Amino acid sequence: MDRKEFMKAMTALGIISVLPKDILKAQTLNKKPMQKIDSTIQQILAYGIHAPSSHNTQPWKVKIEENKIKAFGDFQRRLPFVDPNNREFLLSISAFIETIDNAAMAIGNRLQIEPFLGLISADKELFSIEMKGNKQSSSIAKLSLIENRFTDRKNYNIGEMSKQDITNLQDLDRENIHFFSSNSPKGKIISDLQIQAFTKQSNDKSKQWELSDWLRFDKDQKEKSGDGLFPEMLGLNGLPKFVWYSFFNKKSANGNSFIKQGIKSAIEQVKHTSGFLVITSNSSENISIYESGRLYQKALLKCTELSIRNHTISQILEEEPMKNDISDNLGIKKPIQFIIRLGYSNQDGYGKHIRRSINSIII
Ligand SMILES: Cc1cc2nc3c(=O)[nH]c(=O)nc-3n(C[C@H](O)[C@H](O)[C@H](O)COP(=O)(O)O)c2cc1C
User: Fold this and answer.
1) What is the ipTM score, two decimals?
2) At what angle do helices 205-212 and 185-202 cross, to 10 degrees?
């Protein structure tokens, strides 16, 4: 069946009218059989894909069965070198679940989410998500927070965070959200450890090679792959962005000058940070990591609402010996799941999220 015949058949079946144009384009290009999906589920997923994930891997897949979404981890999208125990993998999927739940609430629906996290393996369903109807009023403001949240890797203004902003963030969960001003002794420890961990990781050939797999040197990949890290997302514009697209590739991203430049930027980033948010979990069990991933996305959405710029920095939690020492250094007894740079900025964000199509996450 060619594209014209396909469109004709779909129009006859009444499917085309409920599908956004970009999904339709992807469906016909990929030649996957078209699945008729409930329009509310489509809408919820369209927001869900805006969730944050390590290296923008978007390691989630879903199966749709009537009014149920079954969520899986996409094992092709793991990061075995920086994340050998799948901690960040689960945190990313959990942020996706939180985003879906938020979107459903914002469009006036309620979801029942059941996690199955005893074991995490390639083909195992991790979450069963059922729509529970309850059409209530919708909130456009909440939906735009999901779309407008973004990771800001640029330098922030010098200065303290507003006390009220920190209180608002900590009110999300007083037990698990901690804040350290950059000027405090513990804030200084985080800054120092971040530079040490970032430098160590950049000089680790396997980890740098793994990262470079997700660095995008071809503009066309925005449409083609819809994942990974583009220069705009890393805070590069103008000449540096031109240089990135013109002269760099996967191989040179593993070379000395690229690595040196990355370390230089990381030093500037911590210098231009007002404070660090540290998110802990109640235990190291998968179910607690899941709760932490959800809390993380709640905190990022709150930051977006309060115009607080944020940048998750995971190197301390990925590198030895920093990851073993950080809890003691900060006097925190619980497992640390996230460290996030915070601050304010007058600079623009990088623009629209780069994401895969809904079609490519449906199995
Ligand atoms: C578990 C996890 C760990 C992350 N670690 C880092 C990190 O170490 N450095 C960084 O720049 N961004 C980190 N991020 C942010 C992602 O890179 C970011 O969410 C992704 O590139 C998508 O971009 P967006 O947040 O602007 O939508 C992390 C995100 C998650 C969920």
Assistant:
1) 0.99
2) 90
